[in-house]
């Protein structure tokens, strides 16, 4: 029996496991693409030769008030400071001075940022030049700009609603409910009111109690994704005049900058993401061993949820998942970790429907997975008691998890079991024909 050793990132280190090669179905990794050597040149090129839009300089005019929406500190992977300055410069070249530009941080339901965090997401030069506002989804001065066809009331940040022109920035990757992140998500949830966000995200649940999660809202699905469609309608009510989004490779380097029409340029970016993250797989396996790649993607279980979403795609129904999540901030956010106190999935589903929040829904998804499959999690020992509440089985080492999995496979009589390996599961999407 030939063995092959695999490394999986956990925290700022890694753990190894040697597995029998004949049982490895596939090592599922993203596709290599050329990285951008000159982000400045690529950004300026995208701004001046945009997708289905006039160049940014021609979209804005002297005398207009311009709001630029920027993703918050939780989206540091977008590396906004490396291209935002050139967006501001092009707005200046269009005749709009710094004093007529503002930046609105797209917190969604997240907390306000510190000055240091504003510098981290905007860059010091831009943070020193441009007025920055923190979006507050519970603010009393939100502006109602209309309702979507699904009845979602669209409340928007005052600074965005009052602007003559709105420019959205961000990054595109897959999203477990909306299909893809980026684009219209800068509006909803980015700068939307709490009522708007929760009404929209509740569309991720099926219509009937007991049916669980809607099959119309899932990773990579755009067409007929009702949550995505609702987001797009909300964005259309704001009607951003321009979009700038980054697309990153499997190593977190820039692969492309897309710019132009707020929907068309974003849609082009989603295709680029799939060229990188979409991986054709041979099939689902009895066991999936998955890591998001280490810190900061495994800083807590909430962020690590992206690992379970894609791992489940590569797993046979009722199979075994082995995840590696250090989760050094295990209790963050509190609302997520406080959601695991239910005895069965129907009880939890009813509670999510009664008071929908995004962390509550993400917790519900993990609870569902743990009810339908066996989930071992390699994590810190001090996390064990907390992790057990989620339905997962905590262990300290990958070796221990594999030993338990082998015992379970033997009890099931599975001698010809298969294993899928996902060393960067948060950025890899298994695609099965």
UniProtKB/TrEMBL annotation:
Residues 11-206 form the LarA-like N-terminal domain. GO terms for molecular function: lactate racemase activity. It comes from the Bacteria. Pfam families: Lar_N, LarA_C. InterPro entries: LarA-like, LarA-like_C, LarA-like_N, LarA_C, Ni_dep_LarA. Gene3D superfamilies: 3.40.50.11440, 3.90.226.30. Residues 283-410 form the Lactate racemase C-terminal domain. NCBIfam families: Ni_dep_LarA. This is Nickel-dependent lactate racemase. The gene is larA.
């Amino acid at each position: 029996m030939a063995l092959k050793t695999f490394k999986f990132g956990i925290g700022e280190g890694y753990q190894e496991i040697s597995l029998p090669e004949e049982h490895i179905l596939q090592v599922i990794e993203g596709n290599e693409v050329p990285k951008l050597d000159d982000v400045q040149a690529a950004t300026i090129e995208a701004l001046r030769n945009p997708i289905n839009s006039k160049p940014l300089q021609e979209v804005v005019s002297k005398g207009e008030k311009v709001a630029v929406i920027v993703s918050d500190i939780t989206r540091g992977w977008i590396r906004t400071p490396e291209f935002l300055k050139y967006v501001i410069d092009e707005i200046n070249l269009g005749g709009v001075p710094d004093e007529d530009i503002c930046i609105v941080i797209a917190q969604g339901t997240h907390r306000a940022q510190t000055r240091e965090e504003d510098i981290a997401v905007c860059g010091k030069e831009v943070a020193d030049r441009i007025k920055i506002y923190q979006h507050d989804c519970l603010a009393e001065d939100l502006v109602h700009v209309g309702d979507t066809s699904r009845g979602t009331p669209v409340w928007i940040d005052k600074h965005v609603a009052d602007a003559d022109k709105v420019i959205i920035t961000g990054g595109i990757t897959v999203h477990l409910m909306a299909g893809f992140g980026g684009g219209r998500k800068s509006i909803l949830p980015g700068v939307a009111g709490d009522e708007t966000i929760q009404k929209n995200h509740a569309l991720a649940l099926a219509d009937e109690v007991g049916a669980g999660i809607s099959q119309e809202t899932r990773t990579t699905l755009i067409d007929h994704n009702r949550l995505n469609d609702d987001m797009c309608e909300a964005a259309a009510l704001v009607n951003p005049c321009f979009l700038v989004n980054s697309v990153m490779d499997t190593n977190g380097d820039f692969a492309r900058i897309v710019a132009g029409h707020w929907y068309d340029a974003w849609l082009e970016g989603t295709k680029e993401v799939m060229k990188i993250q979409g991986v054709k797989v041979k099939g689902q396996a009895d066991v999936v061993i998955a890591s998001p790649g280490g810190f900061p993607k495994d800083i807590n279980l909430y962020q690590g949820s992206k690992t379970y979403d894609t791992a489940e795609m590569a797993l046979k129904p009722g199979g075994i998942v082995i995840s590696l999540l250090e989760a050094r901030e295990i209790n963050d956010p509190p609302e997520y970790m406080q959601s695991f106190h239910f005895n069965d999935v129907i009880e939890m589903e009813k509670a999510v429907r009664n008071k929908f929040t995004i962390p509550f829904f993400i917790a519900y998804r993990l609870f569902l997975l743990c009810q339908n499959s066996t989930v071992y999690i390699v994590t810190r020992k001090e996390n064990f008691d907390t992790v057990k509440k989620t339905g997962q089985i905590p262990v300290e080492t990958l070796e221990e998890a594999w030993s338990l999995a082998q015992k379970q496979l033997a009890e099931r009589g599975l001698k010809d079991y298969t294993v899928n390996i996902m060393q960067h599961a948060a950025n890899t999407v298994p695609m099965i024909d």
